[in-house]
Amino acid sequence: MKEKEFIKLISNTLKSDYIGDDCAYLKDLGIVISQDNLVEDVHFSMKFTDAYKLGYKSAMVNISDIAASGAEPKYLTIGLSLPNNIDSNFIENFYKGLKKAAKNMEIVGGDITGSDKIFVSITAVGVAEGRKISSRKNAKVGYKVIVSGEHGASAAGLKNLFEGKQNKFTDIHLMPEAQIDFSKNISQNIKTDYAMMDTSDGLMDALIQISEASDVMLDINFEKIPYDRDLEKYPDYKDLILYGGEDYQLVACVPKDFEVKNSYEIGSVVEGNGVQMNGQKILNAENKIYNHFKEQK
Amino acid sequence: MKEKEFIKLISNTLKSDYIGDDCAYLKDLGIVISQDNLVEDVHFSMKFTDAYKLGYKSAMVNISDIAASGAEPKYLTIGLSLPNNIDSNFIENFYKGLKKAAKNMEIVGGDITGSDKIFVSITAVGVAEGRKISSRKNAKVGYKVIVSGEHGASAAGLKNLFEGKQNKFTDIHLMPEAQIDFSKNISQNIKTDYAMMDTSDGLMDALIQISEASDVMLDINFEKIPYDRDLEKYPDYKDLILYGGEDYQLVACVPKDFEVKNSYEIGSVVEGNGVQMNGQKILNAENKIYNHFKEQK
To answer: Is there a domain that residue B236 lies in?
Structure first.
């Protein structure tokens, strides 16, 4: 059973309207909230990262979810479970990394316990005031599809880490940057409903999620997707760009005439369903999309 | 290194005023927030519990933290990491248990991922409106010390589970009840600052934490602490009552003339430091207090 089927089951069990977007928008409190788990040897390996970078990325993953909602990232809480042999250095560096990533936020608490493997769960709270909050359900026919930046680098970085290399791609993989300015530019200025997601599970995954939730087709032009030309050295670079994940860029569907600074228009929202790339319908994308329940070797 | 030293280190690294209470009070948003990790074979064992009870208790542990702050428990998010072999039944029952515990709350999202062992991290949000929020720093000389109910049953239950028994104590251990009415009675009516904590890590631990944070002594009369008389069958029943933990009762220090329905007065706040029980100063309590970094066998 896959993550998405689990989420469907949870949604059915709870009969909740909140399950669906990465952040829950609690209108009565004027906040969005998001929680992510990072598990050693599933989401990260201490062979490739260190306490500082792990803390940094753990925060950034959640800040990215808040950015995807359009809200202002404001507070973090951290649940950290650690093996017995971890020392105070690890904890100090982990929290320094967290603090670096969460520069305009406050880290306000959490929990620390024992465990066999490192388990990090971070909750981020964003403030909705003065912002219009996104939903992946809000893509409308006639909207344009825009992204905040380059895709594929993080997946190439992970490949390189497995090969024992260090380069610009590995840096991007280990210390990504959430797109909070892109988010703010949209959510502070837009008047209409819009869709936005981060591309943590890959650009294609985000496009498919938006198309399904909004019941529209996203018509994408591959040539318009920005990427580092050095990726072309990899034979599967197109897959890295579309399915790689963990770039923590944002993809949004907004009205054609709504201008977003530093954005790249990669396609448009049309009638239909699913995603079409250069005129070709994308089928069986699930097999390529990164799935946490698949072993990652 | 122990949990409390870790928390001190984190607090120093972050230079944050928020670390200390189980809940962080975010005044600008009018909310309190709390996060707890529950790790398989550290905090629970699937030999003794099941998915429904685990879901129930995971929520209740956090609801208890919110109750300790005096806020109204309102929203939950859940980060759940599960081994590959877990089926949809487990997830359905886990969420049914969550829902049962969180009866007046909404479960609004979270994360689900893979892992070797079961990791549960729950974040609870409480609303401060119309309530006075507690702090363990707020015990004052002349206040009385009150508890919401009986102690020791949960620890006896855990003992029984290890011995393969099932009885009223094991039920209390597996499905505790957060003291939200006790919390509400205080926080909606009190005019002055007050201290309140849950007794998740044991009654003595809570008393010591309050005495340290408030720089006072708590003078306790053991005979006043309510407990199930069947506990007296256990030779170490006094330790179960004082150090056992996981009863999820509340202990509060409030003005002498402030009446709290269904509360038990167990002592008073006096000048000095630490805890005094029937005239005897409690020393080296750390060795008895449950510590997550100690192996539990």
So the answer is: yes
* Residue B28: domain span: 22-127
Looking at the fold, whether A182 and A39 belong to one and the same domain comes out as no
Q: A82: closest CA among B219, B242, B1?
A: B1
Residue B13 lies in a domain: no
CATH, residue B150 = 3.90.650.10
Select the residue from B16, B25, B33, B86 to test the A interface by mutation, using most A Cβ atoms within 10 A: B33
Domain end position, chosen among B127, B153, B182: B127
Q: Residues A203, A234: one domain?
A: yes
Find the helix or strand (DSSP H, E) in which B184 lies. helix B180-187
Cα–Cα dist B24/B14, whole Å? 14
pLDDT averaged over every residue in chain A: 92
What is the residue-wise DSSP string for A13-38?
Answer: HHT-SSBTBSSEEEGGGTEEEEEEEE
How far apart CA A117 and CA B85 sit, in angstroms, is: 18
Chain CA centroid to CA B234, Å: 23
Number of domains present in the structure of chain A: 2
Enter the ipTM. 0.89
Test B112 with A78 for CB contact under 8 angstroms.
Answer: no
* Cβ separation B36–A99 shorter than 8 A: no
| pLDDT classification of A22: cutoffs 50, 70, 90 | confident
Based on the fold, state whether residues A148 and A246 are members of the same structural domain.
yes
The distance of A39 to chain B (nearest Cα, Å) reads 6
Q: How many CB atoms lie within 10 A of CB A54?
A: 24
> Between chains, do B293 and A114 touch, taking CB under 8 Å as contact?
yes
Do A196 and A118 share a domain, yes or no? no
B interface test, pick of A1, A9, A10, A125 with most B CB neighbours within 10 Å:
A10
- Is there a domain that residue A53 lies in? yes
Confidence of residue A63 (pLDDT cuts 50, 70, 90): very high
